[in-house]
């Protein structure tokens, strides 16, 4: 995908504003960004649902604009909103999808049975989509996306709304697909999910790609090797942030939560060099000197979330 731009009619800004990336066969690629960043639009263009404004988008070497039919034959989609056919049962949805994609009649039933089994849905084959739980419906949509043996599978927020168990199940299936050679492109606003599933992650905001690398490399690229979270009351966050940033060994300080007028604690995160404990006394002294009181302290290691905060100056959730 090169210099992709999408501007919706009447919009004042581009929903996708010049994004370029390439995904290798068998790779799991995560598009990460806050609501409205342009992830779904990007997937929409790649899956031929949204018409691009400019740039070039190909899937498995096929240009989605000039050969949308060819592109649809090699890609599978798991959309953000469930779109199962309620006039068919679970297995019927799979078989119909295979027919639509030209899978030979004799293969449709056995393939549907196999995918239902892989998604843990064998006993739901005859169930109407209306009677499936959210997690079951999501698994059925993943099965449907695989019925025509796509080379590239697009998953738009595959685990939003799922309970932790269903989420893990979906994560395992994604890893299994990639191990079997399917290229997976997924969107999420869950940093942990992106870090866990993706070989590489692209961080998107305001329609632009801010960073692209392996989760480990993105985190390693941050200055500071540990984090110290301080929950503080009794002092303004902006001056405190500056004071903390000046403490020796501190690589950067962000305000994660500004607190409330009514005295709710603010949370600041300092990224520090070396061990978190070594920087702690200096940080606590500065809070006291600023007239603040520390209610809680948390020590940790930087994550993708810190990469995002560093790039955009704000948290995702
Ligand atoms: N059909 C549409 N018509 C007009 N504007 C749209 C349309 N779809 C999306 N947008 C706008 O384009 C921008 C990007 O939206 P998009 O859905 O791609 O973001 P996203 O990163 O997928 O967000 P989310 O995490 O909420 O799904 C937003 O500002 C949104 O309001």
Automatic annotation (TrEMBL):
Source superkingdom: Bacteria
Single GO MF annotation: ATP binding
UniProt domain ABC transporter: residue ranges: 1-231
Subcellular location(s) per record: Cell membrane
PROSITE patterns in alphabetical order: ABC_TRANSPORTER_1, ABC_TRANSPORTER_2
SUPFAM superfamilies for the chain: P-loop containing nucleoside triphosphate hydrolases
Stated family: Belongs to the ABC transporter superfamily.
Official protein name in the record: ABC transporter ATP-binding protein
Organism: Actinomycetospora endophytica
């Amino acid at each position: 995908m090169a210099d992709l731009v999408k501007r919706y009619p009447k919009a004042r800004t581009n929903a996708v504003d010049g994004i370029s990336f390439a995904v290798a066969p068998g790779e799991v690629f995560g598009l990460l960004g806050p609501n409205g960043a342009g992830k779904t639009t990007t997937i929409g263009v790649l899956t031929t649902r949204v018409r691009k404004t400019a740039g070039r988008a190909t899937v498995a070497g096929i240009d989605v604009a000039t050969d949308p039919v060819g592109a649809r034959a090699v890609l599978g989609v798991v959309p953000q909103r469930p779109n199962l056919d309620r006039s068919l049962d679970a297995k019927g949805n799979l078989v119909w999808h295979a027919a639509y994609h030209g899978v030979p009649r004799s293969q449709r039933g056995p393939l549907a049975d196999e995918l239902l089994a892989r998604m843990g849905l064998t006993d739901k084959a005859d169930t109407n989509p209306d009677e499936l739980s959210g997690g079951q419906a999501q698994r059925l949509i993943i099965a449907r996306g695989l019925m025509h043996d796509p080379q590239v599978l697009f998953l738009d927020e595959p685990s939003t709304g799922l309970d932790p168990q269903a989420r893990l199940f979906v994560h395992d299936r994604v890893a299994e697909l990639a191990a079997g050679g399917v290229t997976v492109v997924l969107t999420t606003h869950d940093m942990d999910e992106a870090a866990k599933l993706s070989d590489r992650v692209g961080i998107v905001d305001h329609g632009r790609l801010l960073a692209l690398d392996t989760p480990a490399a993105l985190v390693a690229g941050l200055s500071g090797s540990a984090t110290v979270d301080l929950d503080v009351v009794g002092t303004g966050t902006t001056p405190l942030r500056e004071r903390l940033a000046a403490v020796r060994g501190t690589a950067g300080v962000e305000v994660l939560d500004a607190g409330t007028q009514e005295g709710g604690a603010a949370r600041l995160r300092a990224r520090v060099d070396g061990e978190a404990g070594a920087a702690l006394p200096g940080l606590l002294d500065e809070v006291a000197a600023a007239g603040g009181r520390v209610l809680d302290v948390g020590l940790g290691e930087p994550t993708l979330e810190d990469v995002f905060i560093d790039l955009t100056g704000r948290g995702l959730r």
